[in-house]
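Researcher: Next sequence.
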Amino acid sequence: MSTVFPGIGRRRALQGAAAGFVAFGLLLWWLLPLGEDPPGGTIVFSTGTPRGVYQEYGERLRSELDRDMPDLKVTLLNSAGSQENVRRVATGRADFTIAAADAVETYELQHGSGAGRLRGVARLYDDYVQLVVPRDSDVRNVSDLRHKRVAIGLPNSGVRLIAQRVLRAAGIDPAKDIKPMSDGIDTGPGRLKKGKIDAFFWSGGLPTKGLVELARTFDFKFVPIGGDLVARLHTEGDAARYYRATNMPESAYPSVQQGSTVPTIAVSNVLMTRKDIDPRLTEWVTRTVIKSRDGIGAHVHSAQLVDLRTAIYTDPLMLHEGARRYYRSVKP
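Model: Next structure:
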């Protein structure tokens, strides 16, 4: 009888210990490839506007990449949003970015320069369309925006793309029936608070920091975007197929929603790159994105929704070969 492992045979104890080491080794391999030096170099990551989810996620992801790949320099570039992000990666001005699926599809349908080189890395989280007005506003639905001063997002933003479609679905010409304003989440909340605009559209993860901050000092409400509008959007076909009717959960902005959900539209976000980006680098980036979900999610709530089981679905983009390698390596 072993004195080191009382009550069990030495052989069984050694087998158990060996199994434990194997399990531990597999865990380390999943987190970080053993026997392989991390890739280095420089990449450019296009994010979004200040106080938006894209920017905050990009900053947190850069910190995680620094830990996993200390010889990789990640440069962040602010952008107007999805449309600019897609164009930057397609044309080589950036190497990685996040963009809404409808913006990606729109760029491809327009045969934008380099569209055929775009590849998916991971499906991340959903954007929710958030139409914001003062609490005492007489705006009750989208059609009430007629003749109002409405911020529809920055040029080349995903917000503008979806805001214009929603307005048209409600029978409003964005160029004639409202006074369109080019504000994003960086300036829209402040201008609404000062009475310089009557409403603004935002499309982003929940909750968005800019709206959380606004709720602390200003009384506002969300205008519902009903399922009937989504049905009308779908008649446009093409990129509009990525919109789905949903409800913004009451937990998104508790002090604003006061226990009520808000009917709205959601669209998925995709982390993307180009076909020519090194597969080994992309595999490491993919691993870091999945591994860092909880760490980033502690600060960016939307990131908690990143899921290995759904990350592979990067429609309308084909998976990058490096991302494919990662997903194959962790497939049960």
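Model: The longest helix spans residues 10-31. The radius of gyration is 23 Å.
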